[in-house]
Target: Peroxisomal membrane protein 11A isoform X1
Amino acid sequence: MDAFVRFTNQSQGRDRLFRATQHACMLLRYLLESKAGTEAAIVKLKSLESSVSTGRKWFRLGNVVHAIQATEQSIQVTDLVPRLCLTLANLNRVVYYICDTVLWVKSVGLTSGVNREKWQLRATRHYYYFLLLSLVRDLYEILLQMEQVLQDRAKREKSPQGSPGYNVVSEDTDYLQSFLLLFFRSLRRHPPLLLDTVKNLCDILIPLNQLGIYKSNLGVVGLGGLVSSVAGLITIVYPQLKLKTH
Model:
């Protein structure tokens, strides 16, 4: 099992690279659509995007095993909120990968009794639930970081060496500015949380668009997918930047 998970982890890195290429093609197509004389380039980009998408399906075949193991690990998390969010999120990810595998079986012609639209909708919904729960977990972690920033400020103000002029929030700013300042300061001190939040926010644009909850154009989806893929690649190249559970 461990050897297989290590293999799928390597496949995840390749999948992220392919995904970045796929969404870069999507973004370039959007940028070129309004320009004359770019029809040939758009056709080539569509072809490359389709080929990369097909290649990604092969890399994702074993991810259901990794998702199952992630679910087992999330049950062991000590903090109740992350444990609940991560467990439910990973269960949805398991279902998503099962649906994705069924769609792959359909695409290669191994079966004809699969309703592609139905399974695609099911996969998109579970992917959306997975990202939504992941963002709830991110929000919880951000709130913890904000609380820590406020506690650090209070300690600094009480300290004899502390500067009385230091403040996370200026008294002259309004509540919204104060909250945003605290929010971004909290993310800045925790790069893994920042990366995970950005990745999930960008990723959720895709199911939001596909489910019709929030329609976006091709450029927004492509840019979001590209940013998310780069963030994912960073966490694979630098594992210390992956958000840890506690």
Remarks:
- Residues 82 and 146 are 17 Å apart (CA to CA).
